[in-house]
Amino acid sequence: LVWLLVLSLAWLDPVLGGEEEDGEAVAKEEEEEGDMLSDELREEDGVLVLHEHNFARALSEHQLLLVEFYAPWCGHCQRLAPAFAQAATELRNESSPARLGKVDATAQVALANEFGITSYPTLKLFRDGNRTHPLAYTGRMDAKGIVRWMQRRASPSATLLQDTDTAAAFVSSQDLVVVGFFKVGWGGRGPDLAVAVAVATHGVVPQDLESEAAQAFYEVAGEVVDLPFGVAEAAELFQAYGLSADTICLFKKFDEGRTDFPVDPARGLDVAELTRLLRIHSLELVMEFTNETSDQIFSAQIPHHMLLFLNKSSSAQLALRDGFRAAAGTFRGKVRRCHGGDMRGGRGAPRQQCCLSPTQVLFVVVDVSGYGADVLPFFGLTSADAPTLRLVKMENNRKYQMDQDAFSDTAIRTFIEAVLDGKVKPHLLSAEPPEDWDTRPVKVLVGKTFEQVAFDETKNVFVKFYAPWCSHCQAMAAAWEELGERYKDHEDIVIAELDSTANELENITINGFPTLHYFPAGPGRKMVEYKSARDVETFSKFLENGGTLPEEPVVSEAPPPQGQGPHPPQGSSQPSRGR
């Protein structure tokens, strides 16, 4: 009996223990479900976990709340998560009124619909509990960018400069500062306490003040978070800085030291234009391409880049920077007159936006023996080609090369003007074709053979434009090879591919990989972009149908006769009618 009792306990113990563990798991799940049904605010890594039951409470308790709407399966959301958590921690450590929260938009469908969430991640800022007009996040998607963006909205977007001492201290405080001088920026009143409090609370000039230019200035200050902004209206400050009218001044500790942007009395201050000009003139006249400056160079959105490739270890090549720099000032923020029209217009004439043709050119020195070595293949260059010059049109990556490198400022200016006037053809890269390029099932095209193959009037040519490093291209490589095998014996169909990183085409710009284009037989230079499924069978349907996909028949069910219910589902015991 004793042994039976021991054995019974031995068998029952894990069962009872398991029930206890199961009970704990159930209790935990019920607790989590309870959290989702209550308005309690829970955190993960310093980020508020929000749902439809606690969202209103979060808005009421936090003056500034940046909310990330995410999907758990989204790769971009997963990459953002550590930076978002780091930003939340930094803001909390500095006792900022700004907080960060997150919403799983796939689970909280009502919130996703309320705020029009259609992509992930989407970040929105809620201010002062207002849930009807959230502000879209416009900063960088890293911890530093998020913190800066939130700091700018948690404090005045511009510092009020009351006298020459505070202005001088502000101007000398950093390498780059922006000051807006507005005679009526405060509605004709002095910077009284009420105005100062309004600015400190909201970070923008109140709408009841008179100067629309000042309001536009504060809007720019709220967005350009990497520059400190100040604002001045005192007459002594206008006099101290040699100004007589409303002006935006960019002070910098390099190049010319100061750039002024007068406010047009008729047009006022355009937010987008001022933002663009500040971005352009915040850069040095001649930038060096480094790890630290690369983001600035590309984010400035300057349409043309003039590049001097040199080896900094050579004193003779370093000396070439003088002529390069002398040419640079001519093209900074320059606006060219349109053909057949006056850029400014006569008295009373409307200002035509189409007559403004910004042709600013950013001048960049690339050290082929340093950080710049990594970009040489993009230009088809090696370090032995230095010194040399290239001009790049950023909208389509077209590259232009002098017939003969000449490094004087006059020669550089003449070359740039010729390119801008359309008098110079782009320099196109082309690899050498493999010996068996036209005997393979998939023909290997290069820049110099593309025209004769793609625009052969007797062939229908289907071309894949790819990059060797592109994972999407690698994923469809087998299907493209199989397609080549399937059509290798067809006289009028050619399956081909072109490496777009090593070959460039004059009239075709490839913006993503892979890109598929179909060039039908016959006269003319016709081209059809393929945008459907990337599998062999769909490719074949497309080819067999002459470069279009046959329309699939629309399948619909006829309504049942009046008085009858809907057809029973397939698999039911009742007979179903054919569909």
Could you characterize what this model shows?
- By secondary structure, the chain is of the alpha/beta class.
- It folds into four domains: 43-153, 3-Layer(aba) Sandwich (Glutaredoxin), CATH 3.40.30; 156-280, Glutaredoxin, CATH 3.40.30.10; 287-337 and 357-421, Glutaredoxin, CATH 3.40.30; 443-545, Glutaredoxin (3-Layer(aba) Sandwich), CATH 3.40.30.
- Helix content is 33%, strand content 19%.
- It starts with a helix and ends in a 35-residue tail after the last helix.
- Strand 1 (42-44) and strand 2 form a beta hairpin.
- The strands form five sheets. It has a six-stranded mixed sheet, sandwiched between helices.
- Pfam families: Thioredoxin (PF00085), Thioredoxin_6 (PF13848).
Shape: flat
Rg from alpha-carbon coordinates: 32 Å
- Strand fraction band? 15-25%
Percentage of residues in helical conformation: 25-40%
CATH topology category name of the largest domain: Glutaredoxin
Going by CATH, the homologous superfamily of the largest domain would be Glutaredoxin
Level-1 CATH class name of the largest domain: Alpha Beta
Q: Per CATH, which architecture of the largest domain?
A: 3-Layer(aba) Sandwich
Strand order within the widest beta sheet: 1-2-4-3-5-6
Overall domain count: 4
Distance between the termini: 71 Å
